[in-house]
Amino acid sequence: MAEVCLPPVRQAALTGHDGIVSAVCHLAGATCLESALVRQQWAAAHGDRRKVIVGVTSPSDGFEAHAWLDGEPTDPRFVVIDEIGPVSAES
Known about the structure:
The protein is of the alpha+beta class. The chain has two helices and three strands, in the order ααβββ.
């Protein structure tokens, strides 16, 4: 029996699934940090090692904290205070 060879997964294909993962996190009531950590692990399992970025706004802007994956668009009001990862797929 001949081996089955599959083409490598394209990053564009992963983006669509990342939206599904994000939607499931949202429906489950995950915080932005929980969602970013789940999406970070999912991306790592698909060969895309990314950092989770944690940022805050200044108290004068009504202090807020937010977490997102490195490379995602962010609100410029957030100042990065920490980075988590990247993780390996086995983490």
